[in-house]
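[User]
If only I could read backbone structure tokens as easily as an amino acid sequence. I have put the entry right below:
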Amino acid sequence: MVTTLLQPTGLQADMEDQKGQTSDFYRTDPNLPQRFNNPDSFQGYGVKKIHPLYRTWNQTYGSKTPTVHEMQTQFKVTSHRFSELQLQSGMYKDHGFNTALERSKVMVSTEIQNKRLQHLRHYGNQSKEHHHQNSITQ
């Protein structure tokens, strides 16, 4: 399947060609950070070239530098109180009593060792006798 990338239409091309600040086109919050008021300050868009056969629409859209029409006009800061409190007190650590059984990845438990020995004692001799009888008959 071959994907054809669409070229911007006349209106889209006009919107992309418009330079300026967001506040020149839209009413913006007076506390809007400068990076949102000036979309030309964003760097690194469209740097990585990808073979057209493997390029997705999201990659095409994401490679374009934002224009004033895509920039946000308000900026609301969220509280950092929780993060600051976590930095001061540290992460929660459970000091409870652990009753779970942990199995060793190196050693086999004695219960399993005993079962294996019983199995070998019981079936090990029979398998040797069976093997011995087969070798005599051949």
